[in-house]
Each structure stands twice: as C-alpha cells, then as structure tokens.
User: What shape does this take?
Amino acid sequence: MAALQHPLTTTIALLLVAVVIALVAWALQLMQAANDRQEFSLMLAGCMVCCSAVGLATVMVITLTGPGSLLSAPLPTDAGVSLDAVFLPDGPLLLDGGLLGLDGDLQAW
Assistant: This one.
C-alpha cells in the first residue's frame, strides 16, 4: 500500500474509519428504536445514515487506494481545457415552434 505512506494520509484514513463506524452505530441505534416504537420514519432514517456510511467508506477507499490517489499524487501543472470535442452547429437549429437562426431570431415554419 504505497498510498498510505504519508503520516497525514494514515491519520485521515483512521479518522474516516472512526466516522464510518460511528455512523453505522448510530444507524443501528435508530433502527433499534424504530423496531421498539414501531415507527417507519426512524427505520428510514437509519437506512439513510447507513447508506451515507457506505458512501463515505466507498469514497474513502477510492481516494486513498486508487491508482491516482488524490492525497499522494502531485497536482497537475497543465490544467488546460481542450475544445476539440465540442460540437457547434453551423446552421439553424430546429425547435418545436420553428427555426432558430444563428442571429437568435425565432422564425416560424
């Protein structure tokens, strides 16, 4: 695991693991209260908290162990944007009400 060599990265990873464990524990408490009180809204709240814990764990794993790890990779130096894939129409656009000319005027059919 080359991505976890920096001490700050290890500290962040352990902190996020603790947050995920706390979220799962809270979700289980909500679901237990929902079962005791027979309230569906608490069960939904517990499911939402559990889903957020799963999402946080997924993002944590992708961020810390991915091939281009965000915390260990250097920032890109060339942040230019290429417009090669942009398609610009060279004629009028067809709309429901007519043609939209290149000058912005809507012309009826």
Observations:
- The beta strands are 93-95, 98-100, 106-107.
